[in-house]
Write a structure and sequence with these properties.
The protein is built from five helices and 19 strands. By secondary structure, the chain is of the alpha/beta class. The chain has two domains: 91 residues, OB fold (Dihydrolipoamide Acetyltransferase, E2P) (Beta Barrel); 233 residues, Purple Acid Phosphatase, chain A, domain 2 (4-Layer Sandwich). The strands form four sheets. Strands 10-9-8-7-18-19 form a six-stranded mixed sheet. Strand 8, helix 2 and strand 9 form a beta-alpha-beta unit. Helix 1 packs parallel to helix 2. The longest helix has 16 residues.
């Protein structure tokens, strides 16, 4: 792990561990955060996070982070140094103690071979599924939440072998895989998921809820077309007794999309106090919009599936639960 000494101008630093001393959220068109950080030797310097690098990380004063591929800036003959976010950077929060660490992924669409709006562009959805699982293993995730469309309309035997191997990695790492069904699942893929359910690795979520830990419970509801979606038929619990309750959906939702057919506020009005966190698939861009009732995110996809010209990078998310609080950060793939 490098230190302040290794920062050089106009070069990328492989990795550095820093603790945030001061965090100022600018949230303007260019600069997202300006941080004062301290390396392991106690040297303080500035770290600037730029919006164009799609950061989506909550920076907490006193927390420790590992930064990879930050971009260096030096002046005064190298006596003054600064680190910036970059186009290929990544960041992970170091959590010395947590109750539970969840990785959220979605819209893996294993079986799809071509980009939805660029038929000439091949994609590797099965490979990216496996890559995401390796990220979960390397980041010591306790469980994985999948927001639906694990598979596409058709998956080859080779695709399923790749997913099987990834499930073997989860089993060996003692990581549980919780999922719901999206609108594109295929019979072969569903049979594979059911096989791993019988082996005790996968769990098909429902509104009865699944206990991740004694204090964390996850609920899920499979995709329904908006015209056929009924909040009454969801059978949402009227009382959530868990310290942390998380709902997993695969829908495009109001209030985040005004033209959507499913209203999250209506769903969340059913249980007393509402869900603490809601994650949804179906939208292929990762987003974390503000929501008055709690925390929410669209997981996005793990492969380049967006039809937007300025699409965000394929990603996974980490939710770290500690004493009833949830810290969120996103990791690009």
């Amino acid at each position: 792990m490098s230190s302040w000494e290794a920062i050089e101008g106009q070069t990328h630093l492989d990795s550095i561990s820093v603790t945030v001393s001061k965090a100022i959220h600018h949230n303007d068109e260019k600069l997202d955060w300006r941080l004062t950080v301290e390396d392991t030797s106690g040297k303080q310097f500035e770290l600037e996070i730029w919006n164009k690098h799609d950061p989506l990380t909550e920076w907490k004063e006193g927390a420790e982070y590992v930064i990879r591929n930050g971009y260096g800036q030096t002046w005064d003959n190298g006596q003054k140094k600064k680190l910036h976010s970059s186009g290929k950077w990544s960041v992970d929060r170091v959590d010395s103690a947590s109750d539970c660490r969840l990785m959220v992924m979605g819209d893996t669409h294993v079986g799809r071979k071509e980009h939805p709006s660029k038929p000439y562009q091949s994609i590797d959805c099965a490979g990216k599924f496996a890559q995401a699982i390796e990220v979960a293993v390397s980041h010591d995730a306790d469980s994985i939440l999948h927001t639906g469309d694990v598979f596409h309309d058709y998956a080859t035997e080779e695709d399923c072998e790749t997913v099987d191997t990834a499930f073997e990695r989860m089993r060996d790492a003692d990581i549980n895989f919780y999922y719901i069904l999206g609108n594109h699942e295929c019979d072969r893929g569903i049979r594979l998921l059911q096989r791993w359910e019988r082996r005790g690795v996968a769990t098909h979520l429902d509104m009865g809820g699944s206990e991740i830990t004694d204090d964390v419970k996850v609920y899920g509801y499979d995709h329904r077309p908006g015209s056929k979606f009924s909040v009454e038929e969801m059978d949402v619990p009227t009382l959530l007794m868990d310290s942390v309750s998380i709902l997993v959906l695969h829908q495009t939702l109001v209030p985040f999309r005004s033209g959507a057919d499913v209203d999250l506020d209506e769903i969340n009005g059913k249980p007393f106090g509402g869900f603490d966190y809601v994650v949804s698939g179906h939208l292929h861009d990762p987003e974390r919009p503000s929501w008055d009732d709690g925390d929410f995110l669209y997981a996005g996809s793990t492969e380049d599936l967006s039809t937007n010209n300025d699409a965000s990078a394929p990603s996974v998310w980490f939710l770290t639960v500690s004493e009833g609080m949830i810290d969120t950060h996103r990791r690009k793939l």
